[in-house]
Amino acid sequence: MKRLSLILLLISAVACADNKSNETLPIPKPFPEPEPVPEPAANAATVSQAEPLAEPEPNPEPAPEPEPERKPSSNDARPESHSSEHSAARTMKIQFDAPSEDYGDTVDSSKNKPDDIDNDVIQKLVESYLNPEENKPKQRVNKEVEKLINSSPFWNLNEAKAANSIKDEDMAQEWMNGYTNEAQKILYQVAVAGWNYFTNVQPNNKDALDEAEDALALFVKSSSKQAKQFDISKMNNPFLKREFEILTVDGMSALDAEKYGEFNEVNAKINRDFINTEICEFKGQNPCIIKFTDLAAILNNEKDLRKSAALWKFWRETIGPKLSSQYEKLMKLTNEAAQLNGFGNGRDMWLSPFELSSRSSPPKVNIMKSAEKIYEQILPFYQQIHAYMRRQLTAVFKDKSALSKDGAIPAHMLKSVSADNWSGLYQETKPFEENEGHAEEILGSFHRLNYTSKTMFIQAYRYFKYLGFGKLPTSFWKNSVFTRSWSKDMLCNPPAAYDMRDGNDFRVKACSQLGETDFKLAHKLMAQVFYQYQYKKQPLPFRESANPSVQTAIANAFGILSTNYDYLKSADLLADDTVKGEAVRINNLYREALIDFVKLPFDVVADKWRFEVFEGKINSSNWNSEWWKLKTQYQGVKAPFARKNDDFDPIASSAIAQSHSPALRHVVSYVMQFQILKALCGNSHSLDLGCIPDKEVIANVKRVMMQGASINWLEALEQITGDKELDAKPMLDYYAPLISWLSNTNEHDEMYLGWDGPETSFSENDVPAQRTSDEGTEHFIVPSEDQVAYPGGDCSKGQECLLDSTCNGKTCECNPGLFTFKVASSVNCLPGDPGMFGFEHGGSGLSIGLVPNENVSTSAPPAEEHPKAQQNHSKHMHHAKSAPSSTIAALLLPVLAVGFFH
Ligand SMILES: *[C@@H]1O[C@H](CO)[C@@H](O)[C@H](O)[C@H]1NC(C)=O
Ligand SMILES: *[C@@H]1O[C@H](CO)[C@@H](O)[C@H](O)[C@H]1NC(C)=O
Ligand SMILES: *[C@@H]1O[C@H](CO)[C@@H](O)[C@H](O)[C@H]1NC(C)=O
Ligand SMILES: *[C@@H]1O[C@H](CO)[C@@H](O)[C@H](O)[C@H]1NC(C)=O
Ligand SMILES: *[C@@H]1O[C@H](CO)[C@@H](O)[C@H](O)[C@H]1NC(C)=O
Ligand SMILES: *[C@@H]1O[C@H](CO)[C@@H](O)[C@H](O)[C@H]1NC(C)=O
Ligand SMILES: *[C@@H]1O[C@H](CO)[C@@H](O)[C@H](O)[C@H]1NC(C)=O
Ligand SMILES: *[C@@H]1O[C@H](CO)[C@@H](O)[C@H](O)[C@H]1NC(C)=O
């Protein structure tokens, strides 16, 4: 029954998409988006910090030797005011080692012939989607985990004596040694199960991961109860004391079993509803098929303000009432858990990692005060970009009446669901029309040098070695996944570095594609791998970064370094005479600001609002109006429609619904990344250009990495930068060229800064000239996206074909051995023959068509038939999804087959 209705939905949706092919209707997904990986509970994160203490040293891998010191060469030292700004002659070249290590195969595995795809497994997945309750796993699949459960006294909840009853430090040390031994085993199993699932999405692997995580939760619960037997206040050894402090944080699992279960259920329900709720594009549409994941892409391409407004409203009015009482429950349970952890309320618990407070010690830092200070520092810049955007919007939407010259911006105009990511407006509002830098040249160099995805990581690795980081075990190159492989379904997002927690096995998982963007990603991930690799000798509870924000900040700082032109020239990726012009610099900064910088005020709002809920200052009777009060005050945006008391708009934001954790993390890591960059690049007066850093500063970074979680995030910050607190000044230095351009421009245009004016109307003269390239231009966010195309798409300008397709000179056609499957105008490459499932050759307006591989170039619609908007849209859809469309279409096949034959 359910199957049939699904098919009907599909077909009508497809027909619908076909009817209005110039609109941005998504193809509905027959399979739910993978839910975001839930935040590990505070204590799970704690335990996952744990690693082997008594490390048996025999290394199966060649122990990484210290790097042989490179001979200093004449051009080794960094010139004082090094900058690639205007003079190519001043390029500083660095020498990388000969690529002598065994990196294994660098053949691009995505070009390999596909393995057979197991239709039974897919069928099972589809069935469990259609009939969730009937498909509960009946027996344990993870035998290794099953063996561990209750295998030692550390698993025993009843083993613990009264809290603080043991004062003997030797006993505490002995307990800690035993604990680390046991924790190591279960953590390893969780890491293995996680890797297996994320790189090979199969129901079995999901069950195995769930079981491992459940077991870990069990272990954490009993071991942290046992840890509380020991009186921390009596401990003399500061390291031991900190270890116990880390272990005795319970987070949400402090709740009793029933309430903890309820918390997880409520959290999951909010997440599920957020992902699955469907809304209409217009009143009376039937069926409604737009979901949250489609919304961003649709808003991004919508030029009709009335449609954006309608979607904005439908989304909020559908999701809000549904989740209001659930959210109240979630906050209440979080407060209860906080109190059981010894905190006043959820706010104090959430902030404790930043305020360095614990059940036994009060905050050492007032992080919200820091956040306010940061906001004050960035406000002048934010007002500049806000004023500039406000004026530009009158041209983007050809409608100046929706805006006032000196007021807040209506939230639906910013091309994102929550007005927290303005990058959808980049193309239409960028400061300079000129090209976007040298992405094309870099991509060309990758091709010339026969790069594959893996080669980008090898280059990143050689850069880190040059900087003084040691070697990684060769197993890293063997076990990592650098690009999507055909044989397994992967969860590509987020790309991540994995410490497999046996002290020797480190990996990355990324579905990278050749290009500037993922070259940067490779450097970020390498920084994370080296972080994990450096702290591997720490005792178990310290085998974690000083704070996740520190790790992100360091990784992002290295990401910026990887864009430095001297480095790119040294790696032979740019010609020696390439210069990064002023326009390119300002455009790049502008794009980055629209994604990350404008999010900072939003983060402040998201946390302030939740803290007021935690503190009981607001409740469901007035929390919506408070939300808009804060949004207007900090972000300068307002609701486009009057809001009612029973509306619940906060939950329409992913930051609230999908991530029940402080948004402050982004603020801290983003601000800190520039403090670190500044430390690495010394007095370089053009921070946005990056630099090749001094090795002495790198040594500080390495030292911080080596100490893992034995130091806190402020100590890490101080050891790298000398700063004792967060400071937005380096960030403002980084953005300086953009800030000065914006303020000149706004001054010239006589724009009002701020949003507290009397709502003066824009005059005709205020509206900026229409962009020449406006209509019909591409709306890609990342320049390298200009260089990619999807199956059936146009690759005549040398675009790289994605998703298992190859360019035939004109269009991206499916790789040999694959079948081309057309749904409306979207083309998918499938391993199985859709003909086996009763499909016929498409034609005469039929939306679902089948074209054998050889015929693809004739049957793929020529590019002109793709209205631009739709093309862009489908690119975004592909891009945004963690599972590419080929997977989704593969899942779709058996469903349809079942429907037709039964
Ligand atoms: C498609 O368009 C035709 C005529 O333009 C209309 O009769 C039909 O109802 C439309 N189908 C859908 C699903 O909107
Ligand atoms: C679709 O395209 C046609 C012809 O190009 C145009 O007249 C119509 O307004 C478009 N519809 C929308 C909703 O953009
Ligand atoms: C993927 O996982 C399944 C189920 O655990 C396993 O049987 C299969 O061998 C794995 N595939 C690969 C290529 O590792
Ligand atoms: C202090 O505690 C750490 C961590 O448990 C341990 O490695 C170290 O040996 C202890 N130091 C002394 C002097 O006991
Ligand atoms: C911001 O929006 C753009 C375009 O919609 C999207 O590609 C990008 O991933 C978003 N960035 C973040 C950090 O959400
Ligand atoms: C790239 O590969 C081609 C063909 O295999 C080869 O001729 C060429 O020398 C390679 N280039 C480099 C820089 O390795
Ligand atoms: C909400 O807060 C107001 C005061 O701020 C209080 O009067 C009211 O009873 C509260 N409502 C609920 C449902 O707790
Ligand atoms: C390709 O298309 C032609 C004509 O459209 C058809 O005759 C031929 O059978 C097709 N090739 C295959 C392998 O189906």
TrEMBL record:
Cofactor comment: Binds 1 zinc ion per subunit.
Disulfide bonds: 280-288, 492-511
Signal peptide range in chain numbering: 1-17
Binding annotation for chloride: 665
Ranges annotated as biased composition (Basic and acidic residues): 67-88
InterPro entries on file: Peptidase_M2
Protein name: Angiotensin-converting enzyme
PANTHER family recorded: ANGIOTENSIN-CONVERTING ENZYME (PTHR10514)
Ranges of Low complexity composition bias in the record: 40-53
Lineage: Eukaryota, Metazoa, Ecdysozoa, Nematoda, Chromadorea
GO MF annotation, one: carboxypeptidase activity
Keywords: Carboxypeptidase, Disulfide bond, Glycoprotein, Hydrolase, Metal-binding, Metalloprotease, Protease, Signal, Zinc
One Gene Ontology cellular component: membrane
Ranges annotated as biased composition (Pro residues): 27-39, 55-65
